[in-house]
Automatic annotation (TrEMBL):
One of its GO terms (biological process) is phosphatidic acid biosynthetic process. CDD domains: LPLAT_AGPAT-like. SMART domains: PlsC. Pfam families: Acyltransferase (PF01553). This is 1-acyl-sn-glycerol-3-phosphate acyltransferase. Keywords: Acyltransferase, Lipid biosynthesis, Lipid metabolism, Transferase. Its EC number is 2.3.1.51. It comes from Granulicella arctica.
């Protein structure tokens, strides 16, 4: 059954990507910055739904400024884009990925290089990166980046790389935090969030996404936190943001544990109602 689900969703996803390509080439003609981010927002909602992901959102959506989040998978960009228009910041390798490469390029994504990824050619200068980030902030939309610099299995939040925090301080941009957590329902055999939802280690994109599309009951929880106001320098700012994101990750884990305990106590499903917990849920 799982293999048939993977095949069906793969075909559906391929059709959506073809439709998005045609839309971007002949109709919408998305450009860089805010227009591209708004364009990809609509398509991301369709793609996330086609992938079978349900998600809930808590906290107040940022309307501008910078937002930093923990990083679990290539799914993160699609999920945040489905929630609201964001100007994304991603490592340059994403541009060459199937699926995400073309989509992120159309969405006005800012691509940055990590020093260890630049071999045998000139790397981006700090001035070039800061100029790109300043243009992103000037778009009027919130700018989202993942300062861990790599994906994890969600068990911890790595130290934040400080490079992009310089642009936050340089342009006097408000900084808020966000947290993402994936969960997996029953009926998926030996599949786990860490290996089959998160994209870490030496995993290959093609096999991973095919396995992922066969999963059932994938849910994502996204929470937006408050502004980080202690910002005397980029060291203090990055450390404060990382500590708050790590705290929110722990809170999401405790929240999930409490819901599971209540599920076991009642011996039945617990339905989360928006009016009760202040979150809005979206069926993927």
């Amino acid at each position: 059954m799982r293999i048939f689900r993977s095949i069906w969703r793969s075909l559906y996803l391929l059709l959506l990507l073809i439709a998005a390509r045609l839309d971007g080439r002949f109709f919408s003609r998305p450009r860089m910055g805010a227009e591209g981010a708004i364009w990809i927002h609509g398509w991301s909602k369709r793609i996330v739904r086609a992938m079978g992901i349900e998600y809930s959102v808590g906290g107040n959506l940022p309307l501008s400024g910078a937002v930093v989040s923990n990083h679990l998978s290539y799914l993160d960009i699609l999920l945040y884009s489905a929630i609201a228009p964001f100007v994304m910041v991603a490592k340059r390798q994403v541009r060459s990925w199937p699926l995400l490469g073309w989509l992120t390029a159309q969405a006005g994504t800012v691509y940055v290089e990590r020093s260890e990824d630049v071999i045998g050619r000139k790397r981006q200068t700090h001035a070039e990166v800061n100029a790109q980030m300043a243009a992103a902030y000037a778009s009027g939309l919130p700018v989202l980046f993942f300062p861990e610099g790599t994906t994890t299995d969600g068990m911890q939040v790595l130290p934040f790389r400080r490079g992009l925090f310089h642009s936050v301080l340089n342009d006097e941009v408000p900084l808020r935090v966000a947290t993402l957590r994936f969960e997996l329902g029953e009926g998926n055999g030996a599949a786990t969030v860490g290996e089959d939802v998160c994209f870490v280690g030496d995993a290959l994109f093609g096999p991973h996404i095919f396995r992922f599309l066969g999963l059932r009951g994938v849910t994502a929880k996204v929470r937006f936190g408050e502004e980080i106001v202690t910002r005397s320098d980029r060291f203090v700012l990055s450390q404060g943001a990382q500590a708050r994101v790590a705290e929110m990750v722990m809170q999401l884990g405790q929240e999930s544990g409490a819901v599971e305990a209540l599920h076991d106590l009642l011996d039945g499903p617990v339905k989360r109602v928006g009016a009760f917990d202040g979150y809005r849920s979206v069926r993927g």
